[in-house]
Amino acid sequence: MNTAPPKNLGELFFGFLWIGARSFGGVLPWAYRTMVEERRWMTHADFTETIGLCQFLPGPNIGNASVVLGKRWFGLAGAVVAFLGLMALPFIWVLALFTLYNDFSFNPVLKAVVTGVGAAGAGLFIGTAVKLGRPLARKPAALVLIAACFLSVAVARFSLVAVIPAGLLLALLAARRNWL
Amino acid sequence: MTLVELALYFGLLSLISVGGMPSVMPEMQRFVVEVKGWLTPGEFLQAFAVGQAAPGPNVLIASLIGWKVAGIPGAVVALLAFCFPAAVLAWWVAELWDRFKDSPWRRAIQRAIAPIVVALILSGGFVIATPASPDWRLWLIAASSAAAMLLVNANPLWMLAGGGLLGAVLL
Fold first, then answer.
1. CA-to-CA distance for A59 and B30, rounded, in angstroms?
2. If we measure between CA atoms, which residue out of B48, B17, B27, B138 comes closest to residue A157?
3. Which of A117, A151, A155, A159 to substitute to test the interface with B, most B CBs within 10 Å?
4. How do the pLDDT tens digits run along chain A, 180 residues long?
5. Quick one: which of A5, A48, B60, B132 could link to B41 by a disulfide (CB 3.0–4.6 Å)?
6. CA A128/CA A126 separation, integer angstroms
7. What residues of B are in contact with residue A177 (Cβ under 8 Å)?
8. CB pairs under 8 A between A and B
């Protein structure tokens, strides 16, 4: 399959704008469809590698991906243009939707619906965690780490500023001993 | 003053958000609701719901919180503060990461991060579904949507729609 990066900043901007515009239910599948399947800016392997890195880095995964790809193709200008293209429409829509919701939130049925949507969204997080955690299920050290981290963050409500460095340090020690 | 506080706090979150936005949801809820009292637990859940239902990256919940706290400037500041520090890091690390493709340290780091990210995302789901005191109806909705996601490979919007429907019936 022949792939070619976007030819100019305009093409880059509208590509990312198009990703953001229709990313109902998650950006990643739309980013894949736009960049790999429709516009053929990059290969499947290249996409997977870039997203893999961005999932490991802190920050919004797809936001980071826009910066990394924009930089690769057009330097600083590309990074800024790709990021703005990605965020522009969703930013406006989410604020518009929230304003609309706030105007009608006195309505108890609407409030119940939105609260239900939020709980379902929380369920999607739990499903994602289970999906990601499956390969770890046979490693006792990983299960202990997950349990300890969950108890300190979700139950004891310790700050992540303390939990993440401590957890990462322990996990790194375990990984070096091949426990993970 | 609030804007500065928003910028500093979301900037800090940006740098510790391994695994992305879901990982820092418990911390954001703790700070915004419990420490600062900017939003009530219910408002936080509803802002999260709107952020999930609207198209776009889930990082936009940061802008909804910013908007609640300080209007449009707050929305812009919170979003950029959450994205910028991590973007600068990504800018520098992307090439480095490629260069150390086969280094044992890179593999160790990748393996170490996996369980932490799993625990943080799980905590995010738990904290959001438990806004104030435990409510079995919210847990039921969350559990159904998690189960549906794991059993059926459908667009997550269907799970959100189902949650809204259950919410209208149960809540």
1. 19
2. B27
3. A117
4. 688 999 999 999 999 999 999 887 778 888 998 999 999 999 988 888 888 788 778 999 899 999 999 999 999 999 999 999 999 999 999 999 999 998 998 899 999 999 999 999 999 999 989 988 998 999 999 999 999 999 999 999 998 889 999 999 999 999 988 888
5. B132
6. 5
7. none
8. 352
